[in-house]
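Protein in question reproduced for absentees:

***
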Amino acid sequence: MDYDPIPMLEKVRVPVLAVWGENDVLVPVSESRVAIESAFARGGNRSVNCRAPVNWSLGGKKYRKK
């Protein structure tokens, strides 16, 4: 990935709902959830809700900046 979102996430002050597809092979939960939760915590955001629904994915779609 060319962009590191962590510094920006540390600045977020609004409530957050972060959702991962448990079966998503492009962005595995195990690789991103801890890093993202830690970034919000370092920034002082305590209003963060992270979810990884069982048997759910984003269909392997790739998202890019338009």
